[in-house]
Amino acid sequence: MNYNCFLKEITQRVRERVYDGCTVEVKPVRKNNGIVLDCMSISRPGENICPNIYLNEPYERYLSGWSMDEVASCILSTWQNSVPAMEINADDLINARIIREQVVYRLVNYEKNAALLEDIPHRKVLDLALIYYVIVHTEALGDGAIMVRNDYLDYYSITQQELDEYARVNTRILLPADVVRISDLLREFGERSGVSSYADISLEEESWHAPMYVLTNAFRQYGACYMTDMELLHRIAQNMDTDLYLLPSSVHECMIVPASMYDDTETLASMVREINRDQVSKDEFLSDTVYRYRDQPGKLEIAS
Hints:
Number of strands: 13
Distance between the termini: 46 Å
Number of domains: 3
Shape: globular
Helix content: 25-40%
C-alpha cells in the first residue's frame, strides 16, 4: 500500500474507533527547513487544541509488517495518553503578558525556511534567521512552544523591535547559555545513552591542535541561537584572548574553535559539511557555513 492510500485507510480506521462526536483530521504541518509532515489530530467536541500525531512513524511500522489495526491502536493509545483531561482555552496558552515574559529565540537557516519566514516575524543574521517561540505550560499537555506569527503582533499590539528585545532577555533567563568542552559534552551524552567508550568518536578535541568547545544552552535544545549573541561572544573571546570560529552542528548547538590556534577555514568547512551530512537530521540542519566572530569590532561574519 502506498503512502497516500495508507493515509486514507488509517484515517478511516481511527474514525471508526474514536468516541462519538470526535473529529479526526489529517493535515500537512510545515517543520523546520521546509520539511512538511502529515499529522493526525483527534479532537473531542468543544476542544480547541489537541495533540498532533505525526504519521511518518506509523507508516514505517506498517511497512515493517504491522497490520492496519495494530497501527490504528498505536495511534489511539498515543492520543489517549496525550489528550487533555479538561477543556483548554487557547487564551490560557498565549496572551500579551505571556509573550512578553516567555518568548524566546530559535535560529534557523534563512534560505531553507524562506516560505515560512513570509508568515512569521524574524530577524535575518547573515544566512540565518532568528525566529520567535513562546514557551507554554499546561497541566494537561505539559511543556510546549508556540511559534509567533505575524498576526500575533497586530492582535497584541507588539512591535517587532519589542518582540526581539523580549526574546533577547527571556532567552538568557529561561534558556541560559552553556559553553562546554566538546569532550565533556560527548561524555554527558554518552552517560545518558549508556555509551562508555569514545575511542571511535572523531570529534574528540585531542585529535585537534586547538581546543574545541560547544556553545548551547542548559537544556541542550535550540541553543545555537547563542551564536548571534554578541555580548556573550565578546565574553568568550575575551576569556580565550582570541577571535572565534563558529561551526554550526545543528539548531541545538555550535562548536567554537579559537581563531588564533586554527586558521584553516577550508578544513573547518569540510568538517561542518561532513557532520551535517552524516550526523544531523534534515529538520535539525542549520548551516554548512563557517562563521568568524571578530572581537574588534564585535561582529559576526561568514568565514567560509
